[in-house]
Design a protein that fits this description.
single chain, 529 residues, alpha/beta, 7% strand
């Protein structure tokens, strides 16, 4: 009974106006009961029961109406296989064309079909192999794709491009076509390819009216593609420069304006992590997101990032409105679900999601390449002390992308909590092989050895982390180690250094350093601050 009752109350997700209407009806019925001779106790009971049934039925109906449709099929659009000898102009033109094809398929396809775009696969695939159908089939199986679209531009003349749509299971070719790409034909050719994909997959567009494709400015797109690559490498200053050039070349290029905003936004988040106030970066990001929406009100990702901006500003109603708008435009944007999970549960319950895990799983379902979905789900499991579930989640992503350093770092953290020495060493050796200058990996190993009372190795790893990028928290541990060795001057120096580089008011490590320094300098008194 408790389970049934809990689920009934989870269904009550109608907006506030319906609640007001329902309770108003109850008040009127009660009033009529006391003031009218026409309504007796039996009539009142019957009418209240009818009102309750209608109310619950409406809630259940709206719950299923509002929830995003399940994914029935998935298509993966692989990055373009391009001959580097083809010349920069031809290469940029064909890459621009392929990006437009990605956008058109994603915007016009049914919400029940997930689209894994080329940009999602960039970090996963080997660029030299994306023209090989058998290689694409293997990757497609890992991400659960039913169909793959491959573009091969291995012939430089006239910007020609070979497109191939295949069914993954037996690599059946659904269609293949050669197309000549020129600046003035990109829009028309992209529409032609998109229509052919829908026809051969046997699916209908989500709207009867095709979304129009604006004419392409090749120079602007050349900058935009460079900015995309820099953004995927987390080079936000470089992204700002190139995206700024793309916008300068074409001020109506909404995707470039959005990318510029994303670079400002992530740059601001990085500043926030380092204890700085990201006022200017966030203001620039807000301007770009708003401008991108003004240029193209159908671009769901703009609303998703504007919603995320409002989350950081703690303006929850505006965050909810923008995220719901993004969901309405394109329910296949994984970031929407991850941002919804940051809101109070009452806000995402309205959309039919019971808890954060459903949102994380939905993000992974719509885009199996979305690394953040796996990390957030694993963090949730870890918080619930479900370490094995967290490890399984991370391992499932590593099957898709075995070289993901953030996921390997999270996996190492879980194994440290499980005290699995062999796995800890294996995982961090993989990280260091991929990124020899990853200071966090050396720091985490230092913490492991420190907690295992192997102080000699701990000191080596902390010193290595400091040597790489002056890893701040390593200074605190080095202070403890120097204190153990009786080298008090060195310990005090390390503590003062950590205090000096405090990351904002909520920097717990800096506060620990301050308290410990006080204890060392005033051994006969207590720190009452």
């Amino acid at each position: 009974m408790d389970f049934i009752a809990a689920n009934i109350f989870q269904w009550i997700r109608v907006p506030g106006w319906a609640d007001v209407l329902f309770f108003s009806i109850l008040v009127v019925l009660v009033y009529l009961y006391f003031t009218s001779e026409l309504i007796n106790k039996r009539h009142l009971t019957a009418m209240v029961l009818v009102a309750v049934v209608i109310f619950l039925g409406a809630n259940i109906f709206l719950n299923f109406q509002q929830k995003s449709p399940p994914i029935e099929r998935r298509i993966a659009i692989f990055p373009l296989s391009i001959n580097k000898d083809g010349g920069d102009n031809n290469s940029a033109l064909r890459l621009a064309f392929w990006d437009v094809v990605n956008q058109q398929i994603d915007r016009r396809i049914s919400p029940k079909i997930a689209v894994v775009k080329s940009v999602d696969l960039l970090e996963i695939v080997n660029g030299d192999s994306v023209g090989d159908p058998h290689y694409c089939q293997r990757i497609a199986k890992l991400i659960g794709a039913d169909d793959v679209l491959i573009g091969d531009a291995d012939f430089p003349q006239k910007g020609n491009l070979h497109c191939l749509l295949m069914r993954v299971g037996k690599l059946d070719t659904l269609f293949e076509i050669n197309t000549a790409v020129a600046p003035e034909t990109i829009a028309a050719e992209a529409n032609k390819i998109t229509a052919a994909v829908f026809d051969k997959m046997g699916i209908r567009e989500k709207s009867a009216a095709n979304i129009s494709v604006k004419e392409i400015n090749p120079q602007s797109y050349f900058y935009f593609l460079q900015a995309q690559k820099l953004f995927s490498d987390k080079n936000y200053p470089g992204t700002m420069e190139m995206a700024g050039k793309a916008v300068a070349a074409d001020s109506n290029f909404a995707e470039a304006v959005l990318l510029l905003g994303k670079a400002h936004f992530f740059s601001g988040l990085k500043q926030k992590e380092n204890g700085k106030l990201p006022v200017e970066s966030f203001a620039a990001a807000f301007d770009c997101f708003s401008r991108a929406i003004a240029l193209d009100s159908t671009l769901a990702e703009s609303y998703a990032f504007l919603g995320e901006y409002y989350i950081h500003k703690k303006r929850w109603s505006l965050a909810e409105w923008n995220l719901k708008k993004a969901l309405e435009l394109n329910p296949r944007v994984a970031r929407i679900y991850l941002n919804l999970s940051r809101l109070h549960p009452s806000r995402f319950h309205k959309l039919g999601f019971r808890d954060e895990t459903e949102l994380y799983r939905r993000a992974i379902e719509v885009n199996p390449c979305n690394q953040d979905g796996y990390l957030m789900l694993a963090d949730y499991y870890l918080f619930q002390n479900q370490k094995d579930d967290a490890i399984r989640t991370l391992e499932s992503y590593l099957k898709i992308n075995p070289n993901s350093v953030p996921v390997l770092m999270a996996l190492g953290k879980n194994y440290m909590l499980k005290r699995d020495v062999l796995k800890i060493i294996e995982v961090y050796n993989r990280v260091i092989a991929l990124e020899p200058d990853n200071a966090d990996a050396f720091y985490n190993l230092g913490v492991w050895y420190y907690n295992s009372d192997d102080f000699e190795n701990a000191e080596k790893f902390f010193q290595r982390a400091v040597a790489i990028n002056n890893h701040l928290n390593s200074h605190l541990y080095l202070a403890y180690l120097y204190e153990m060795k009786g080298e008090m001057d060195k310990a005090i120096e390390q503590l003062r250094y950590r205090i000096h580089y405090r990351k904002g008011f909520d920097d717990e490590f800096a506060e620990d350093a301050r308290k410990h320094l006080y204890e060392l300098l005033h051994p006969d008194t207590e720190d009452k601050k």
